[in-house]
Amino acid sequence: MRGGIGGIWRALRQRAGVSIGIAVVAVVAAAAATTGPVYDTAARTSILRDALATPTVLDRSVEATSTGSVNNLVNNLTGPASSVLADHLGGPAQLSRLFQPPLQDVIAQVLTGQRGLQVPITWHSGQCAHLRITAGTCPASTRQVMISASFAAQQHLKPGDTITMRQAALSPLTVTGVYVPPPLAELNSAYWLADPCDHFAHESYCIASVNVNLPAPGPDALFTPAATFAALPPSVQGQAAAWWVLKPQGVQARDLATLTAATQAFLTDSSLAGANVATSSTIPQLAARAQGDWSALDVPVLLVTIQLLLLAWLLLFLIATDAAEARAAEVALARLRGYGRTRTVAFGLSEPALLLLFAFPAGALAGWAGTWALSRILLRPGTPVALPWLAIAAAAAATLGGFIAIGAASRRALTRPVTEQWKRTSRDASRRGWVLDAVLLTGAAAGLAELFTSGYATGARSGSLGLLVPGLLGLAAAVVASRLLPLGCRLAFGATRRGGGTALFLATRHIARRPGGTRTTIVLAAAFALATFAVSSYAVGQRNIGRVAAAQVGADAALTVQAPPGQDLGAIVDRIDPGGTQAVVVDQYPGASNQALLLAVQPRRYASVASWLPGFVAAPPRALAAALSPPTAAPVQVPATATGLRVKVSALTGVKPGTVLTFWISQTASGGQTPVAVSSLRDGWMTVPMSGCPCQVTMMTIDGPPAEPTNGRLTLSDPQVRAGGSWVPLAGALASPALSWLTGPESPDPTCAGPSGQVTGGNGGQSIDWKFSAPSGCGPALKRNDVPSPMPAVVCAGVTRSMDPLTTVGLDGHGLSVKPVALAAAVPGSPTRGIVVDRTFALRAAYLTTAGLVTEQVWTAPGALPRIRSQLAAAHVAITSVATTADARAALQRQGPALASVLFLAIAGAAALLAAGAAVLGLYQAGRRRRHEYAALLAGRVARRSLRASLLIEQVVVLGFGALTGIAAGLAAAALVLRYVPEFSSGVPAPPLLYAPPPGPVGGALLAVLLAISAAATLAALAVVRAARPELLRQAQP
Amino acid sequence: MSGTGAGTAPSGRAPAVPAVRCENLVHVFGTPGNEVAALRGVDLVIDSGEMVALLGPSGAGKTTLLWHLAGLLAPTAGVVEINGLPLSGLSGRALTSMRLREVGLLLQNPASNLLPSRTALGNLLFAQSPTRRTRAMKRRRASDLLDRVGLAEAARRPAGLLSGGEQQRLALAVALANGPRLLLADEPTSQLDPASAADVIELIQAANASLGTTIVAVTHDPEVAVALGRTITIRDGRVGGAGHGGREFVVISKDGTLTLPADVLDELPPGSLAEATRAEGGGILLRRADLSSTDLSSTDLSGTDLSDSGGLGPGGAGKEHP
Q: Could you give the ipTM of this predicted complex?
């Protein structure tokens, strides 16, 4: 334009309000368009890194193993495998960018010379830096070793000593140092990837139990340099492994395809297979999971971006229409001065075009900066936020859309005949076709129908379509409502003419006749519908995320622990939390089927500590605790000092020779039973040595000769334990014998249901008469009645909806019959498949040992984690991991749907505020254009307060109607749509979710916006009326 | 003036192509069923170099006629020629070109003639923008014009900050920026104080004198009418009167109708009967007829150039319809 940028700039300054409005909305449009791709790319990387970082280090590594001669393995595994992996990834640079340097481990079992003790000898790359050496130095040369402290103590070795070995090539080994094995918690690091129990078999975390009659644990490994293996003869066999651990912080979204393909190619590489190298990796599975989560992100982000972009364009149209009207006289002047069509269009659009050109880079940068700030809060720390070309292209497209919106908004002003401009004829506000309304209503109806017919979203794409429905509903409601407002005002003409004062009279007419009011209603209603839905969606999502996180973790924090050998975790927790409200022990058998997961808990503590959220269960948790722990016979306790156990057998009849009596002992700490065979059954004292107690006598069984039934009768009396060198009675063992002891089969195996019997008390409660009968292969048993059977349980409704007993998997992996005392919609710790039982009973009910089978956890109440953790550590409880509800919530918030929801909230909120601002600005501009009218009315002795009230009424009615219509549409959309919009990635076990928008956050946010709008409208009204003075009439009307 | 013109071309000037010629110009506003005839058959000739004031009551059609002369409206019927160029056959582009070359337009509101955010100089450059002059030529011409209208010192001031009188002077300069042969002005002094109005009138006269620009101005201002010399009064969409040299005439239109001046209408209100007779010694005598009496009050139209074909009406004039 010949007037130059300076002239345009002066014109923009002259119309500062509208100019700023256009600039801001255009910037927002470009920013909204930019935000989608930027956020999507960053969120993808965050999701991928979360997926890669969440599981154990081993899970995110590529592993190659080989067995054979150790001297060959040392040199011929890692190098060739590295080359293959690098080739598949695209070169060594890619390998080093994505993976840490490979970790290598070689291990072989060798025998010591004198006693033939089998000892593992190993080389683990970087071992000198990762083992704490308490004496001597790290071995550096062939046949030098470093031994564990326990091995040194056992073998009375110290640095400088030598160990004679059977293999001549190894002998003698020189001890250069003594190391302390790493603690359990350290084994999850990225360094100890090999099976720790191959290397540290003697450490407590590798000792399943010190239960009676188990073999003694083997020694810890000897650590030696790789050179030792290279010097060994081919006859020494061993195993070598190499791991390439992925660097999560180095992986970006764009790497996923390459990474997946390369890993899969590595796993199936024929050259490695030919070299007898086995490969494994779970990276492809992790990648697939991440990709699934991506799809739950991509579509919502796209839809959110498109909707908000459309809203921004609509806003731009609204403001640009006012701007174009403000410039219409100048455009007419240009045409009058002989400007042709093209030149007139260029002149008319030069100002908004300049603003759009400014908005393009500004919006792109603002979008990137906003996303960067949002990502700091929402995404995984350290996630890079780049500005990809797609984002710049999107910003350009948004700007282009802005040009189109402005062109459409200016069309009338640019094509209006000059004479019509001077005549100041205006279009009727209500003159609008029904096509747009019909299209929007049809679209909204189709979206709802699609949503309802497809049911709960099974795929991210179909579920995400729900996000389109609020926008469509909002727009449909907006266009329909925009017709109602002028109509309503027209209906009020008569009433306002007859009475109601000047203010109402003027306000109703201005609303009815001003086309800008219709546009304002549409934009406000659409924006508020989206914002209301976004706020509702976010609030509902956050609440449900909180529920899922709490239900998954089970309590505020869950520590996975390992109690010191021989100690009961329950007793430890009882000791450190005597009040019973801060911590609870929860044992789980993770090997259970997908149908149910047994949670063995301390019921009263569980009632206090676990996250029982509203809707989980109908009955109060404390009442359930009582139901889970009905009274039973007291266990027969054998004290820790016991060295022997005996019972007197008399009146033995019917048993065949070779029949054996067996005591079953359960260690208090770990549960499960260990059979301790006494000897062939006979009259008289039956004695057995004891160790590893405290423990309980849980069962006595009689095993007859194989393939023969076992029938007979006997009397048991005078149970005694040997302690302190003398036999003392076993208290309470025979009290109420008929109630305390039950007959039945030894094994819970359902095929052994045959044994039966009868137990009666005799001799005034001092003995038991036991009559037994069992088919061959199934021994009769006399079981202590200290476990209710079936065991009372709180059962998830997802497991069963019946109150009948059911069989699940106990802590020992065997079947366990439970009887629901309550059906819960969800139980803390296993929201959809949990079965909660009393831990004491579950341990007692275990047939064989539970050691090594059970995951032990200590859950803590809110605020108790630091104290409980330190006290557990003080009690020598090894803490292997800590999960908190807050962390789980954060992880869920980083899933695709939640990320999309936050994006929706952020941009919809901004768009709603912009829309409100634009509406206020539009009303203000309209008011300004009416200053002459107001001046004339003032000159005609209409009170200024009436004008003020008129403008205020107009603004409040237009803004309020638009906002309330939008809020109603948004709430309706939330009620209809939210349950169909996926809130989590597929596969997340969730308790029943709540979809009613929480009134507090939603109402509060919307009220705040309404108040802000009202305040702005009031100020605008006051400003306009204040500026209207009768003297204005001497000036030309703008 | 020729045809229906009530005057003649300035003496000493050879008859040439008239600057403006309207023949039976009709313009109807509105939509079918709701039509308003703004012009009802205007016949008008304005010679090149003339200065003409269009007078008439509000709503008579003056501004509509002016818009037609600027090529801003398409006639419902009739012909408009500007400097011999018939406008009815022109495309929008040709009309734009014609306006650029031939016509300068001065609007009623000083501010509406200008881009308020641009300087006085910028407005003049803006007006010349569609021309093919070099930028230097445009600036030179703009400076000349600013000098001529006495705004040389205000060249760098935004037009929106000028006073009303200054704005109208600037608007006049803008209207003259491309050297139009026809200057159309709509109420050029209506919003100005007397001194500013006098300045503007003087500038218009100067433009006519020095550039030979034909001036057509819609006005209610007697000072303007006197200054421009020739007046044409539009009444009820027709040329109802004309004046020259201080004398006022009624104009008999092509269909023989005439529109009486307001003061005559006081004597002969609409609906009254009048008798037109030839006066002794020439001229036509129009007398109000009172059928109940033999006396007829009379209005002397002597000296008015009336044809004798009017009054009773020719065939097809709608006599049968009251």
A: 0.77
